[in-house]
Amino acid sequence: MEETISLQELLQTIRKRLRLILSITFIAVIISGVISYFFLTPIYQASTQLLVNQTKSKENLYNVGEVQTNLQLINTYNVIIKSPAILELVIKDLDLKMTVNELNQKISVQNETNSQVVNLSVQDTNPIMAAKIANKTAAIFQKEIVKIMSVDNVSILAKATVAENPSPIKPRPLLNIAIALVVGLMAGIGLAFLLEYFDNTIKNEQDIEKLIGLPVLGVIAKMDDKEINAMNQKRPDRNARLRGETLGS
């Protein structure tokens, strides 16, 4: 019985504060949309792919041992790609107005599990510049790795390109608005229950019983003018008698 009453109280609180909940949710959605569309700078991404080649041996076209060696070298290559030895040359060739650390933050390198393909991605506010940085980094790495590790087993599979109408990878306005909708709804409901918790006014007979610890024996019904007029119309004899007594007195 207590669980049913608790559930009813929760629903009553939500119904009572529904306007507040909807207002907070609406404000959160509006703020999120305005910030996402007008204040956040769009970020574009360009990617290129590098292949750590399988070195051919005389006995077999593909040597399993050499493939495993190449896979183990990929982690080393991932570090070298973002090293100052490579990025300083990228900055010099493209005449970039940024430091090595700033360029490092724009570049991400990763490879699929047990794959010899390395994905090099660059994020920038300019989609053309992102593609230039990605391609230049891949080309310089392919050239410099020969000097750094004395190996020549890196090939460029695909160059970064710029689409006709590139779409930014972030911000994502619709996703931000959806998150704001959920957060605003939760905040509104939380505030509604908080206000209800601190509201110590007496609203019904149940509140009186909880306050004084005694049962309520009777309740005076509240009647408006419409109900009173309706009752008077149902009892015209009584009204006439009352008028007669009033006149006689």
Automatic annotation (TrEMBL):
Parts of the chain that traverse the membrane: 20-40, 174-195
Membrane topology: Multi-pass membrane protein
Transmembrane helix as UniProt keyword: yes
Database matches in InterPro entries: Bact_polysacc_biosynth/exp, GNVR, LPS_length_determ_N
Tyrosine-protein kinase G-rich domain: residues covered: 142-194
Principal subcellular localisation of the protein: membrane
Superkingdom as given in the UniProt entry: Bacteria
Pfam families found in the cross-reference section: GNVR, Wzz
Location(s) in or outside the cell: Cell membrane
Keyword field contains Transcription: no
Residue ranges constituting the Polysaccharide chain length determinant N-terminal domain according to the UniProt record: 3-94
Swiss-Prot/TrEMBL keywords: Cell membrane, Membrane, Transmembrane, Transmembrane helix
Similarity comment text for this entry: Belongs to the CpsC/CapA family.
Protein name: Wzz/FepE/Etk N-terminal domain-containing protein
Native source species: Bacillus xiapuensis
